[in-house]
Amino acid sequence: MNLSSRLFPFLAVFVCTVAHAQSSVTLYGDLDVGVQYLTHAGSNGGSALGLQSGNEQPSRYGFIGAEDLGNGYSAIFRLEGGINLTNGQYVVANTPFNRYAYVGIANQTFGTVTLGRQLSLLFEQSIAYDPTGLAQYSAMSTNFIPVSSFAQNNAIKWTTPTIAGVSGAVMYSFGQQIAGNSRAGRFVSGVLSYDRNSFGAHVIYEESHGPLTTGSDLSSEVDRRVNAALRYSIGAATLYAGYTNVSGGLHYSPPGYTYYGGARYMASPALALVGEVAHYRTTNDQGQPTWFIAGATYSLSKRTSIYAYGGILNNHGGSSFTLNTYDFSSPGGFNQTGVQIGLNQLF
Fold first, then answer.
1. Do 50 and 338 meet the contact criterion of CB atoms below 8 Å apart?
2. pLDDT of res. 317
3. Cα–Cα distance between 136 and 290 in angstroms, integer?
4. Which CATH number characterizes residue 48's domain?
5. How many CA atoms lie within 13 A of 340 on its CB side?
6. Mean pLDDT, consecutive 10-residue segments, the chain of 347 residues?
7. DSSP 8-73
8. Burial state string for 314-341 with b = 16 or more CB within 10 A and e = fewer than 16
9. Alpha helices in the chain (DSSP H)
10. Are 212 and 191 in contact, with CB atoms under 8 Å apart?
């Protein structure tokens, strides 16, 4: 029996179930791949040239759905996972939905409650406050949104409705849910934001407890982050700025603070130009790196675009920083220059 014959009964039941429940289910995705040239990409100081997935936007796929329950309530769900277009593998091994896997209840008066694996508030909110949309060359390169707390398992989130441009959200993760140790992996976050007309701003607090692993108990250690960001639109241009204070003993990134400023300019309805400068000032002598980033995106259609990004990292003594946000192979500690040219397609 081939794969298609095994999958057909399941798909048939799925479609029939959707139709019977009168709910909406949407398959969506973002496919992004291109060529990258990066200096000091190896421990020997050598450069690297090759294909890179998710340069401008993370390559991902997902399903979202909703069912009207009446009286203003809806049941909702979301499943979303990252993929690497260069090899077809999951971004996180053996995890098909590493970004979102939740269900919830939504109401226009009381807001939305979701339960399951969810991206952090800091990541979700910051996308709209970076001119690059948190591309691989962006303020994300400062690690102000740590990969270690990028997504949270066992999480509950409540998002308020928006009233006169003001909204908020709180998020709590039960962490590893280990008997006798409720702190291991625990996560708490909250955001207050304002977004109306040409101005937007938010303030976010995030607290992460360390994990409990074999031979290591970091559950008493905490990583704390306070983030503030704003944006302001003037005609075809939008200005951006952000600041994050990093403290605590867990050290998902060095104690200190990061800040960035940038702009996005719509040169035409199809052409967007971006520029950004970001800086990390550590307080424990782990360097004062600065990132310089420029890019352009040209829309070939509503769903397809081409882009080019360039970046320079001046490490200023930094021992672990890299130009590319998701570069886990470069040794760090080097100045770097990178160029990315690629194609992005939505579906």
1. no
2. 82
3. 15
4. 2.40.160.10
5. 29
6. 41 43 89 98 92 97 98 97 97 96 97 98 97 96 93 98 98 97 97 97 98 95 98 98 97 95 98 98 92 98 98 88 89 93 98
7. HHHHHHHHHHHHHHT-EEEEEEEEEEEEEEESS-STT---EEEEEESSSS--EEEEEEEEEEETTE
8. ebeebeebbbbbbbeebebbbebebbbe
9. 3-21, 121-126
10. no
Say what the pTM is: 0.89
- Say if 1 falls within a structural domain: no
Quick one: pLDDT at residue 285?
86
Domain count, the chain: 1
Token look-up 């971006």 returns 274
Residue 21 lies in a domain: no
C-alpha–C-alpha distance, residues 61 and 18, integer Å: 19
Q: Is residue 11 part of a domain?
A: no
Q: Which tokens is 189 given?
A: 């976050």
* Domain region containing 205: 35-346
Name residue 130's amino acid. Answer: D
Whether 335 contacts 40, CB under 8 Å: yes
- 3-state secondary structure (DSSP) of residue 139: helix
97 to 63, 307, 321: CA distances (angstroms): 10, 27, 28
With left for phi above 0 and alpha for psi between -120 and 50, is residue 149 left, alpha or beta?
Answer: alpha
> The tokens of 173 are what?
């993760």
pLDDT attached to residue 329: 86
The structure tokens 């603070």 sit at: 257
Beta-strand relationship, 216-217 and 222-234? unpaired
Is 298 inside a domain boundary? yes
Residue-by-residue DSSP string for 98-138: SSEEEEEEEETTTEEEEEEEEE-HHHHHHGGGSTTSS-SSS
Q: What is the pLDDT of residue 183?
A: 97
Q: Is 6 helix (H, G, I), strand (E, B) or coil?
A: helix
